[in-house]
Design a protein that fits this description.
About 45% of the residues lie in helices and about 15% in strands. By secondary structure, the chain is of the alpha+beta class. Helix 9 runs parallel beside helix 11 and helix 11 runs antiparallel to helix 12.
Length: about 475
């Protein structure tokens, strides 16, 4: 309860779970922090005044509440808030001030690929026809990083944050040097947006993003360990156009590019350093335009991921050219990797579609989102490529297995031939083992060879004839 006896925003979420089951997981998330001692996250706000953008940072929820208290009657009519990580304190501050639909935070907290697991359950989707109090959406994407170290992490890892995101090994199981080459990992991410129009003609918007990975990670036993990493391929490509004005380029030589460490800082950097006067003028008219750079950053990260996947699939094709001498275990590992990428691409496809649907874009709808269309197209190309590799690897594996079976058959034939030689000898020896003059050294020992050799030759000739008959 607050000082005046009203329910807090978090308490309102807990009391609404019977009406909205999709809030149960979020309520439990706030009741049971997953990792003690984590920082509460951070927040910032971008104020759009005239043709400029000003940034203010808040390292605590108390400072954010102080800011809320001081903006009453302020002349700034457009504010874009940025929240990094989901902490109870900051969610309470934003929720109490805006009283927004908590499904925004529930969708952002969710990170499962599939419908249900042993320890979790899926977030129920709301009907497209359901009335939304304010526009909102959640974008799913992946961040690709390289581990700076020689030790490959075989156990499952998670990010050190209030919302644990899974860190998966992206490299193939057999195509890298375990001692020298950096290992590539894929990190699950979410980015959410919410906005509302105010009665005075202005608007407020909130972007919720995941915090940076940092230089540590959580093991399956909840142990924190050193995990230095860098962005794969030096990070996503700056999507703003090249400036052909040499004088202006010289004046902005200190602006090297987005930090690529935090989506919060990157979003603020684009608005403060790259937004044109026309973009700033347009965003003051429509709050949804304030998410333009967030969408482009997410799309750029998808591009990095798909470039990585395409490179790995190309590695498959190049390695499969060398059929001769390929070991059976290698082909089995290759088939396992192909199936792994096929499953992952299925997840990626589902997550792209869920992201598009959260923005109201369905596969059948007409949209001018060129980035979304490009991601869908590249994703479909990767799926077709991996589907074409599956029968090739399977066929090669079957050929190698058949070759091994033939070798084993030849070996058995040779062993049978040896047996055909020794069995008549043993049989003849058994006959003459009754003693008498047929013992070795006796006068009639020569009879053993006179009988055994013809019998052996007859049996070998018969075996040769039967083998020829079976081939014919």
């Amino acid at each position: 309860m607050t000082a005046n006896g009203q329910r807090t925003y978090i308490e309102a979420i807990e009391s609404s779970c019977s009406r909205y089951p999709d809030l149960v997981k979020l309520s439990r998330f706030f009741q049971h922090p997953r990792w003690p001692g984590l920082p509460p996250g951070r927040a910032a706000v971008l104020e759009f005044r005239g043709g400029s953008v000003t940034r203010f940072d808040f390292q605590s929820a108390e400072k954010l509440n102080t800011y809320f208290s001081g903006i009453v009657g302020d002349s700034c009519d457009c504010r874009l808030y940025l929240l990094e990580d989901l902490s109870k304190q900051f969610v309470e501050a934003f929720g109490a001030h805006f009283w927004m639909d908590p499904f925004l935070f529930a969708a952002h907290e969710n990170s499962t690929h599939w419908t249900a697991t042993k320890f979790d359950y899926a977030l129920p989707r709301r009907l497209p026809s359901s009335d939304k109090l304010d526009p909102s959406f959640t974008l799913r994407y992946y961040e690709v990083v390289k581990l700076l170290g020689s030790e490959m992490e075989k156990e499952s890892l998670k990010t050190v944050s209030n919302v644990h995101r899974k860190i998966e090994l992206g490299d193939l199981s057999h195509s890298f040097d375990h001692h020298s080459q950096p290992k590539t990992y894929v990190v699950r991410r979410n980015a959410s947006f919410w906005s509302r129009d105010r009665e005075d003609g202005g608007w407020d918007a909130l972007i919720v993003v995941d915090p940076p990975i940092g230089d540590s990670a959580l093991t399956s036993s909840s142990q924190r360990k050193h995990w230095p990493n860098v962005p794969y391929g030096y990070g996503y490509v700056d999507f703003t156009p090249w400036n052909s004005d040499n004088e202006r380029l010289a004046q902005q030589s200190a602006i090297c590019g987005p930090p690529r460490k935090s989506i919060l800082d990157d979003t603020a950097w684009y608005w403060m350093n790259k937004a044109s006067a026309e973009q700033i003028a347009e965003v003051r008219k429509d709050a949804l335009i304030s998410s333009i750079f967030l969408k482009k950053i997410v799309a750029s990260n998808w591009n990095v991921l798909l470039e990585f996947v395409w490179a790995k699939l190309s590695d498959f094709e190049r390695e499969l050219r060398y059929v001769e001498g390929t070991k059976l275990n290698y082909l089995a590992e290759t088939l396992a990797d192909v199936n792994l990428f096929r499953r992952r691409l299925s997840w990626y496809h589902d997550e792209v579609e869920m992201s598009m649907r959260s923005m109201g874009i369905t596969p059948d709808s007409v949209s001018d989102d060129e980035d979304g269309k490009e991601i869908r197209s590249r994703l479909q190309g990767c799926k077709e490529k991996v589907e074409s590799l599956t029968p090739i690897v399977t066929g090669m594996l079957n050929v190698r297995q058949a070759d091994i079976s033939m070798r084993e058959t030849r070996l058995v034939s040779k062993l049978t031939l040896v047996a055909l030689v020794f069995i008549p000898l043993s049989f003849t020896a058994s006959i003459f083992s009754m003693g008498g003059g047929f013992l070795p050294g006796s006068s009639q020992f020569w009879v053993y060879f006179a009988v055994a050799v013809p019998i052996t030759l007859i049996i070998l000739a018969l075996a040769w004839w039967l083998q020829g008959k079976s081939i014919i």
